[in-house]
Fold these 2 entries.
Entry 1:
Amino acid sequence: MQLPLLVLVGPTAVGKTRLSLRLAELLDAEIVSADSMQVYRGMDIGTAKPTPAERARVPHHLIDVVDPTEEFSVARYESLARAAIAGIHARGKLPLLTGGTGLYVKAVVDGLPMPPAPPDPAIRARLEAEADRLGTEALHRRLAQVDPVSAARLHPRDRRRIIRALEIWEQTGRPRSATQVPEADRPHYEAHWFGLTRPRASLYRRIDRRVDQQIASGLVDEVRRLLEQGWTPRATSGQGLGYKEIADYLEGKVTLEEAVARLKRATRQYAKRQLCWWRGDHRIRWLDMDRWDEEEACRLIVEAFRSEVFPGAEEPLARPAVFLSTPDVGT
């Protein structure tokens, strides 16, 4: 028997947190975060982590799992998320998987492919040396030539995953993105997918406002505290938006104004990569959040979800009139 799973995705700053809280209350759900940075303790403002008050409203899982100096992998996330979902089902609740890290969502719903090649220390050491000499962005450009799908999914500074993808290519001659998940390892959830989107200009304005709010809320002090505790931007957690930019400011490399401008630009670029990731997944029904207010959007999702889980309980919504088939990715 397949157990139901509600999936809510979308780009950063689109409004997932507020909507997921209301959906969880309406559907008696618990939230499983699918955010690769919210797993880190003490990284609250830069990751737009739900506040203590919001987490008191609805139980949340996979938030504050490890310290910022620790490594955390998608495989570990998948294992912990599946355990959390099993516990939610056992309590008779609905799991609501939501977040902007596409790889994390895909790992839970579709399963992780088996590694196509074991780590090769010699290849990895050579690629690490090249990254030191040429820069991680140069390796990302090389990856784009041999595995454009993986390259599009990775930030140009995501050194660890870029090197791993190139390592697999050199060992097998096959792109990492081409690997398949064995049927026996596939999870068996009845997943119901919804996505939130906004017109590009509207989303970018929201991103700029969020960054300004993060600065006003103490992002600089948060990064300063992490640095004092021995954290470094080269840690895996340093891939989070805002942390490297503000660390550069604190180290005197750029002004605060330059750091904020870089953060806004990087966040807009990240949002576009998120939308590109999801654009080809036809399971997702998208809602334009500039068209619907929060309560209306929740009602539409709840009605569509219930009509699928309990056929006949609700009249199915006319998809063309309500849901979009693809988000606005822009140019």
Note: The first strand starts at residue 3 and ends at 9.
Entry 2:
Amino acid sequence: MPNDSDLPLLGICAPRVDGAIQSESREIFENRVRLTVEALGLEKMEMAHYKAAIERIPAVVDKLAASGAQAIAINGTSLTFSFGRKFDDGLIAQITGRTGLPVTTMANSLVRGLKVLKAKRVAVATAYTEDVTNLLCKFLDEHDIQAERPEFMGITAMDMSGVTRQQLVDLSEQAMKNRKVDALVIACGGLRTRDLTVEMEAGFGVPVVSSAPAAVWGALRLVGVNDPVPDAGQLFQLPA
């Protein structure tokens, strides 16, 4: 195992006001990268709050670059997909130009994961409201990925600690019911899904790609970390 100082330094734009990173994300990052984190101050999963957080991104990435980050991941799936593919692509290009570093967003990593898994038709389960969920489906369509009629929880708060394992199972089963798809998408970086992924993949017979693990997968690849992660699903077993 390499010394901690030998690990790549990954910069994270964390959406929450407290700058917290999902615990399952930290579990995968551990012993693979070092992290430097700055908060974007997103208070709710609503358009007005997304816009306010987006305005803070340039200052936040400047801090991450100054701290020595070797790549930058902008977390918060709905933070960028809500404004469409052109915006998401443009933000990545803008921050790459600003910092000279490789950049991804959580939404971008989610799509990249679906692409490498060759998923063209997907079932969708989200924590979001119907309006935000529809924006995700539009974003996927802009990437030539067809979303079947989605299921959603209607949550606007950033805290997902009240969402139970059974609620996620029930939501996912409803999303997959009578669907012939290539993958299941579980969207919202605040949802804990790692411990369900392998079980769901076996039960549904398709890959499961969810926000937090997909974001970690995409971020790790920016700094050349490609080792398989056990019990994290098919996405983490793919070759570099």
Note: The mean pLDDT is 95.
